[in-house]
Amino acid sequence: MARLVEALNRFFGRVEILALGLENERSAAEAALAKGMPLEAREHARSILSVLPDSAVGLALWADAAEEAWIDHEVVAALSELARRVPWRADVWLRLGRAGQRTGWDGARDALERAAAAPLERAAAAPEERDAARLALLDLCDLDLAAGDPARAQRWLDRIPAPLSATPDRDVALRRAECALARGDLEGARAAADPLGEPAAIEGRAALVLARLTLAEASAAASAAAASAAAGALGAAALAPADVARVLDLGLRALVLDVPGADELCAALVAASRDVLVVDRVRRVVRAAGALDAPTWAAAFAFAEGRRDDARQALARGLSAGDRAAAAALLRMAVEMRDLGALEALAARAARSPSGGAAAPLLSADLVRLRDAAALAAEGQGAAALDALDAVTGDGAAWADDLRRSILRGWLPEESGAAGPRAAAAAWGDVLRELARTARLLDRLDLLAATEALVVERERPLRAAVVGEFNAGKSTFLNALLGEDVAPTGVLPTTATLHWVAWAPDPFARIVVRGGQDRVVPHAALKDTLRALAAAGDRVARVFIYAPIERLKRVEILDTPGFNAPDPDHIAEARRAFDEAHVAVWLLDAPQAMKESERRVLAEIGALGVPVQILANKADRLRPDALGEVLAHVRDSLAASAITSLAPPIAFSARLSLKGRLGDEAALAASGWAEVEALFDEQIVDASDALRERALRRKAGRIAAELAQAASARAAEDREAVRRARAEADRRRESAAYLHRERRAIAAAIDKALEPARRELAADLRPIAALPEERKRTDPGLRAYVQERLVARLSGPLSAEIARAARDGVGPGGRGAEGAGEDAARPAAEASPRAAAQVRAVLMGMVAVHDAPDELAARPIEGVIEAAIDAFAMALSAEAEEPVPPPASAAVEQRAQALRAAFEAPPAPAVA
């Protein structure tokens, strides 16, 4: 950057210096600066100022000399005085701001902002002024990036005009990429970094940006492809060798060039690496810099060597010593390694320091919430912990999701027994409350009802469905099982329906008729009533059979229609039994067992997860040798179809079994019922708790899967709405920057475009011209009329022209316009009532301060238009600053997905 004295010599001249005989001092000072003797130049400058304290040239010489001598406090003093002398000079404010940053001066940022206020359009400022304003905007961007405010940093960049040449502005592109990375916008970072190409050997900052971008992209791809959350927990750990090599090359280049942030990236890469060549390469660079004992590097190499405790201790020592780098590394370790101990160390350090210490700004609100949630989970308050985790959206979001999944998985444990692991009782109170909560939030009343049905189902006996094809003997088997002739047999398939057999203190049956009144009849009248209803054309929806049979207190029976019935409604009813049943007993017709139709339905039952016990009925119709062949065929068919039976299939005769159960001892002995009875008791009655648990999990899992799908759809809509809102905010911000930057040229163009509206206004105000001057100045009615007419005639066209200029300046390919859809094509005046209101306010103010308002139609108003453009731009900026709320359904989606994953994963080990 050129010396200040060179620019100010041209502006001020040397009349005062010549008049006071100080020309020799001035020329000596400039000669000393040219020879690289700043201290000598400083003395000559101070000599000029001792005679002429307000000399702009003397102050400029003093500032140049002090800056080259690295006497920054004198630079601030000299430039502060010079800025008061020439407050319009952007280059003076820029140098003052930079010197102020070096000395920690409180006014440094304000000085940079004043430098950035200089006009950047080529016709309005000298080249050094434009350059100074551009550099000030870049410095302000850097300040906000360092402060963790990438959105504000981006706004400074938006005020820098695009270069006229095809060569991109590398400084702006670099910072745009940094802003996008800080926001987590990988697509934006990639687009911004594309013009950078491969950085030159000395471009350390660009090398660091590309290293961070490569690391972020590779980590995102690895996390998306990983089957488990742990694979994505540590970004660098999942990188491909080629990505590691590129990140390492770029990161080490930035480290050698001492770019801020390079040590953090390289240390993280080392900590996550298990490649001895990578670790050794970095170690050589760090050793050459004499930084091996620094806590951050000591911890990184300890991590690489598997010494996790040593790493934590090294970082804790640095934390105790107030080492901010160690604190940041400890925080990174806590988040990436899911280390609550490291998080507690940071929290304890912040609590011990009266001012918060180095750790205070590192322990974000998100991490505090996560720590509190972990404590609640450890105390068994899973629901409260989930509520706390819902608010974790930034730091530690992946960790929060791990913890969320762990809590929900803990609600579905397993226990080990002699027969191996099996599902223990889930924490159904918590699980069902979570399902109901999610269903209510998503307005899924159907799934809420299904969840409430599970609450009732938990208290009901086990439900076993007897299924098979028509005429397989299902009702006869059921009667034999109950020891009474309860279920109707011999009913035609056209009248068959689902029969629900349950316990009651008195025997009766209830027939539910579609569109008619229920019938309540004794058992003996059930068959005749069903036949009569069929003959009358009434459709039976369901039959409930109640009996005071002790076994029904533990197991309710569903007797289903045959799957080969001609009525599709009956087949649908039979399939519906799978949803209601906890276990299915499939009866085969032994003489024609395992037909293709049976295999298809059995496979369907297996796919639904319903446990099945296979029985072969009508064994009395086969010879013993043929029966053995049938059972072998059944076992082979089951194995070939990957269908599992709870116990190996057995053969029996339901007909003989029923006769035996009703008193025929010989029939009972010949029926094979004793083996069926023992199997039913062992595999179904005695296992009823485990079977019910399995069924409840299956049904709750289906509800959870539907809720997760609904939550994802709702969250996708919300994310799209947020994306569009942010795109619109970016478009407004970019439009505001363009309007502010080009307001003079835009005002000149708009002034011409408003000629038709101004002629109409002149016609409206013409009657006032004949009135006395005194009345024009004092009559409030006249002023109100002028104001109303002026606003009515000019505000709409003026707002539309400004909006059109903004749209044309940003163009359809603007950063904010992309994806904004129809909103991007609308004039900003339509999309921004606030901006149009600001234009009206400017016009009203013009009338209010004018002594002769009727003359306004004939006078140039280019300055007013400029003010209106600025007001319009400020309104757009204000609207762009309004916070965009996060997707409202994001937390609901995370919890719903975690609950679905909990049901899909193998049962979690039971907690002792």
UniProtKB/TrEMBL annotation:
Name of protein: Dynamin N-terminal domain-containing protein
One Pfam entry name: Dynamin_N
Domain of life: Bacteria
Positions with biased composition (Gly residues): 810-819
UniProt cross-references to PANTHER family, sorted A to Z: SARCALUMENIN, TRANSMEMBRANE GTPASE FZO
Region feature Disordered, mapped onto this chain: 805-832
SUPFAM superfamilies from the UniProt entry: P-loop containing nucleoside triphosphate hydrolases (SSF52540)
Domain (Dynamin N-terminal) ranges: 465-604
InterPro entries: Dynamin_N, P-loop_NTPase, TRAFAC_Dynamin-like_GTPase
Lineage: Bacteria, Pseudomonadati, Myxococcota, Polyangia, Polyangiales
